[in-house]
Amino acid sequence: MFDVIIAGCGPTGAMLAAELRLHDVRVLVVEKETEPTAFVRIVSLHMRSLELMAMRGLLDRLLERGRQRSVGGIFAAISKPAPEGLDSAYAYLLGIPQPVIEHQLEAHATALGAQVRRGGAVVAFEQDDAGVTVELADGERLRSRYLVGCDGARSTVRKLLGVGFPGEPARTETLMGELKVSVPQEEIAARMAEIHQTDRRFMMRPFGEGVYSVVVPAGEVSDRAEPPTLEDFKQQLYAMAGTDFGVHSPRWLSRFGDATRLAEHYRVGRVLLAGDAAHIHPPIGGQGLNLGLQDAVNLGWKLAAQIRGWAPETLLDTYQDERHPVAADVLDNTRAQTQLLSTEPGPQAVRRLLTELMDFDEVNRYLIEKITAIGIRYDFGAGPDLLGRRLRDIDLKQGRIYDRLHQGRGLVLDRTERLTVNGWSDRVDLIADPTAALDVPAILLRPDGHVAWIGEHQQDLDDHLARWFGKTAN
What is an example of a Pfam family matching this protein (predicted)? Predict the structure, then answer.
């Protein structure tokens, strides 16, 4: 019997498996595809996701395989420079092939002891008070204490669970791919600038060696499940730009719609949802993969605590309480960005106004923090502004604080040198460091890096340790 079965071995599922294994939870990941993703799609890891990778000791290996670029201009493709002094030690985007992320996260999970079984689609399940019986496509039945659906936008787990997925269906289709071109970059830039005077839905961004990321409105689509062809791209580029730019040798081609939906519930009994199984939206702003990774890190330690037996009664419920509003906000900002790309006079007028407003640093900074998820603040009750927010990677007497979060445990950073974590030391670490780059006496960090307490008194700390990490071990 497994503790957790995860349906889907994309970035969300692999990250969740690794988070659970940090707490010695028995994990099986079942993936319907027999082979990992083959097409080389470049995605962007945002600041918050880069912080999470640093917290788990994964960032260096990703930096070696990606390309850093500015966070400026990512809201609705409005060209503005990145604000100075963003509150992160990783104030950039990392463009990286999606298969690389998936491979690195799966390797990380399996190195920690997770089992991954490919070619094993979940087709049915039944849950009871003690666990979940999961049936695979080949008829095999497996037993686990919990099941988590990380199986994408068409999630079988969500459908079988009967959870509503309200929102808006796709109204427009867009082609996206990576192709080589046969014309100079200057010609592409000039044509794109001309088109952007009236239509922002067209984009060609160079990756080097003649390869471009191409985004162009689709034509009539008879079958959305059918992948687009090179000829489809040529036709739509010609319709939009009067030339197909000599595109050839595609790395990958796909289409996406602007469907926007959010699951009504992230948990029903012993079955949970994460990533695209819980929320879908247009890819503008590049938030989807990042949102799923952040779901996984929020859920992992809480589900592990439930399984290990020390979770406070309502801890697992905080997964939906915290992440559902975050996803709702992402859906709203992608709706807004999509409207700002419209060619209609009204949205274009709003875009011009917002472009002016983004010249104010506060506005530009707010939108960048929203897209990159470093502006999130969970509601932990009244307290200083830092309470409920993630802590940036600060300097310590020895190293940096994210280096002390690799094991997914809680952490008390004590500048007073008077506090203890007696009774919780099996799940919470203590650093006494009066030199730490922090302007409060002490903090309690959850395993996801969010500040759960600020203060200096032992009894107050003990109360918050109990709130987040359960009863003492002795």
Answer: Rng_hyd_C
